[in-house]
Amino acid sequence: MSGGDMAKPLLGHRSMEGDPSITPAAGRTIGVLGSGDFARSLAIRLVCSGFKVVVGSRNPKRKAGLFPSAAEVTFQAEAVKKTDVIFVAVFREHYSTLCDLADVLAGKILVDVSNNTEINHHKESNAEYLASLFPACTVVKGFNVVSAWTLQSGARDGNKQVLICSNNQEAKRTVAEIAQVMGFTPVDMGCMSSACEIENIPLRLLPAWKIPIFLALGLFLCFFTYNLVRQVIHPYIREQKNKFYKIPVEVVNTTLPCVAYVMLSLVYLPGVLAACSQLYYGTKYRRFPDWLDQWLQHRKQIGLLSFFCAALHAVYSLCLPMRRSHRYQLIETAVKQAVEKKMNIWVEEEVWRMEIYISVGIIALGLLSLLAITSLPSIANSLNWREFSFIQSTLGFIALVISTLHTLTYGWSRAFDENQYKFYLPPTYTLTLLVPCTVILAKVVFNLPCIQQRLLRIRRGWEKGRYVKFVLPSATGEYSSGETSSNV
What we know:
The protein is an alpha/beta fold. It has 20 helices and 9 strands. The two termini are 30 Å apart.
C-alpha cells in the first residue's frame, strides 16, 4: 500500500449483504424526484422489485408516459407527502428548485444519486451541499456508481455494489435494505465525509490501468523503433532496398511478442524484489518502497496486457501468409529454385526448429489465456486461495519458462551469426531475454532448500536479530537462580 493510501482513513468498507439487521422492504412506498433517464430507470427497477413508486415531476402530465404504468406520476409536493424515503434524481444545479418543499421534506430520508462532471469539481460533495440546503432532512449518498442500464436490466448485467454513506446509521440501514431488495449489494462507506470520494469513483477512467498502459506503450515504442531500424532502415541505407511495406504488419508483429514477453516477466519481477528485500532485512514487517508497492498492486493489469499483446501476435502471425508481399516472395523463391535447378531444399534442422517454435508458442498462449480468465473476478471468486495461487503463481511461472523456450527456439543460433547484427545492434530477441532470464534464475535460487526455508520462516513472522526468552521454573515451582532460556 502506498504512502498516500496509508494516509487515508479506513472507512469501514464492509458489505451489508446478509446483515441480519436488514429486513425485507418490498411493498413500501418510495419517492423519486426527477424525470430524467436515471429517474426513469430507477422507477422501473423499484417497481420490478415490488415497491410502490411515486414520481414527483414539475410537469407530470407530459412525463407520465415515460414511466411504467405501475408508478404514480404527480407533482413534486404531492409525491413528497406520500413517502418517507425519496430519491433525489436531479442535478446539483437544480437542488435550489426544491427549497420550496423544505417544510414538507422535513424529517424524511433524501437519497442523493447525483454525480459531478469533473473530479473534485466543488469544495463540498453534492450530498453535503444537499444536506446544507435541507438541514431538517437526513441525507444518504448512494446509487451514484450504478448506471441507468444496470438499473433497467437488473444487477446481473452490471456492478452489483451500491456504495452508501451517511451520518445517520438508521437511514443507511433503510437505504441498504432497499438496495438489497433490488438485487444489489450495499456497501457501507462510513459517514458523509466519504461522499466526495464516492462521487469521484464514476469519473475515474481506469485508474488502476494508467501505469500498466503507459508501460506497455513505452515498451512498444522502444521495440518498434529498434525493429524499424533493423528491418527497414538498415536495408534501405546499406542495400538501397525499399522495405517500408513491412511496417504495418511485419514490424508490428515482431514488436508485439517482445512487449508480451517482457510484460509477463514484469509480473513476477516485483515478487523477486520483494523476496530479496525480506531476505536482506530479515523481516516481513518492513514496508516496501512506494514504487515497489505500486508495482505489486498493478501485476494483474500488467499480466492482462501481456496476454493482449500475445493474442495480437498470434492473430498477426496467422495473417502473414495472406499478404501480397508474401505471395510475391514465394513466387520469386520458386523461380530461383527452378533457375538453379534445385530439386530438394528440405533443411531438417529448420523444420524441427519451426515445429518446436510453433508448438511451444501455442502452449504458452494457452497458459496465458488460463491466467487471464482466472484473473476475472467472477472466476477468481469461485476458486479457493490455494487454487488461485497455484494458477497465478505456479502456472504463471511455467508460462514464463515456456515463453522463454519459445523465444530461444525462434532465435536458435542467430545470436552467433554476425549477419544478424544490423548497425552492430543485436537481434531483438536477445534483448527481451534479459529480464525473464533474471526472474527465472532468481526463482531457481529461491527454491534452494536453504533459501526457501529462511524465506518461509520470515513470511511466518520470524525476524532476524530478535528472539523470545523462555524461563523454565524449578521442580519446586519457583524460578531457579540459573534460568534456562530458549531462543526462537
